[in-house]
């Protein structure tokens, strides 16, 4: 009887241990990780749901590529057109928009292109082009780079790094690209969360912000098990339901860096 009790106790402990190690993989953009947002948010989810969310943080384009290769259970990125294509191609079951912030144009305090004279991103980019002031582009497949190209297209001029020597395509993440912009006394487009968390601002600051063209929406997408049989759809749905809940919206509201709110829940 004693050995039987010990046997069942061991089975119980093993079962609980396996449950505690349950997790989902989140393919994600970098701004949500680098700002400290996930450190604020995900422990609360694990406490509530009883399983972990393990984050793979890369640019939006790479996160979507990884998800297409079935490396993950859920996706959080910030380029709506790419997200909708991911769902329409069958890799995502649905897309839910759960929060937003904005992009900002960062530049040196001296503002060599005189972009501060009006608060339009279109006007600012035109002045940067005419003055041939240094502009740093991430030059990768991130949501920020995709947004930058959309903005250049609006003014009818997409710079070519091979011929426009003032336009430097660096192939770096947001932090690395910001460091280059600061060292080059250059302009750059950044998501606000990464800029507010960035430690090497020196004489750079926000030049243009708070206009509709610069809005930045974040979507969450559970990966379709019909395309990716190992995707943990039940757990992913638990996570998505929690992410869009009323209590989580308050958690998003409460997240601040240097007393500034970085993300705003979608109503």
Notable traits:
267 residues; D-Maltodextrin-Binding Protein, domain 2; 10-stranded mixed sheet; two-stranded antiparallel ribbon; 11 helices; 43% helix
Give a quick account of the main beta sheet: strands, pairing sense, barrel closure.
10 strands, mixed
Q: Can you tell me the number of structural domains?
A: 2
**CATH H level of the largest domain: which superfamily?**
Periplasmic binding protein-like II
CATH fold naming of the largest domain:
D-Maltodextrin-Binding Protein, domain 2
Element order, helices and strands? Answer: HEHHEHEHEHEHEHEHEEHHEEE
Residues in helix, %: 40-55%
Q: CA-to-CA gap between the ends?
A: 59 Å
CATH class of the largest domain: Alpha Beta
- So, CATH architecture of the largest domain? 3-Layer(aba) Sandwich
Strand segment tally? 12
Characterization of this structure:
The structure is a single chain. The longest helix has 19 residues, at 2-20. Helices cover 43% and strands 22% of the residues. The relative contact order is 0.19. The strands form 2 sheets. Strands 1, 2, 3, 4, 5, 6, 7, 8, 9 and 12 form a 10-stranded mixed beta sheet that branches. The protein has a two-stranded antiparallel sheet with strand order 10-11. It has helices at 2-20, 31-34, 37-49, 60-68, 80-88, 121-131, 143-154, 174-184, 192-197, 233-243, 246-254; strands spanning 23-28, 52-57, 74-77, 96-108, 135-137, 167-169, 187-191, 204-208, 215-222, 256-257, 260-261, 264-265. The protein folds into 2 domains: 2-100 and 217-265, Periplasmic binding protein-like II (D-Maltodextrin-Binding Protein, domain 2, 3-Layer(aba) Sandwich), CATH 3.40.190; 102-214, 3-Layer(aba) Sandwich (D-Maltodextrin-Binding Protein, domain 2), CATH 3.40.190. It starts with a helix and ends with a strand. The protein is built from 11 helices and 12 strands. The protein has 267 residues and is α/β, with parallel strands linked by helices.
């Amino acid at each position: 009887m004693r050995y039987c009790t010990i046997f069942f106790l061991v089975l119980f402990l093993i079962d609980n241990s396996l449950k505690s190690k349950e997790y989902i993989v989140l393919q994600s953009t970098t701004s949500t990780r680098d700002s400290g947002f996930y450190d604020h948010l995900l422990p609360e989810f694990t406490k509530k749901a009883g399983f972990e969310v393990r984050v793979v943080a890369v640019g939006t384009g790479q996160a979507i590529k990884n998800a297409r290769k079935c490396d993950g259970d859920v996706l959080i990125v910030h380029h709506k057109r790419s997200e909708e294509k991911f769902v329409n191609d069958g890799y995502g079951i649905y897309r839910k928009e759960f929060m937003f912030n904005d992009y900002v144009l960062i530049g040196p305090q001296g503002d060599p292109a005189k972009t501060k004279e009006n608060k339009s991103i279109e006007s600012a980019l035109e002045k940067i082009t005419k003055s041939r002031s240094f502009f740093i582009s991430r030059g990768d497949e991130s949501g920020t780079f995709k947004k930058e190209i959309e903005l250049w297209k609006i003014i009818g001029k997409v710079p070519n790094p091979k011929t426009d020597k003032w336009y430097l395509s660096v192939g770096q993440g947001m932090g690395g690209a910001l460091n280059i912009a600061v060292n080059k006394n250059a302009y750059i487009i950044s998501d606000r969360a990464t800029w507010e968390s960035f430690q090497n601002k020196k004489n750079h600051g926000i030049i243009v912000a708070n206009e509709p063209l610069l809005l930045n929406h974040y979507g969450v997408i559970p990966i379709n098990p019909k395309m990716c049989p190992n995707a943990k759809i039940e757990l992913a749905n638990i996570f998505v339901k929690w992410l869009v809940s009323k209590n989580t919206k308050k958690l998003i509201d409460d997240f601040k860096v240097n007393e500034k709110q970085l993300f705003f829940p979608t109503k």
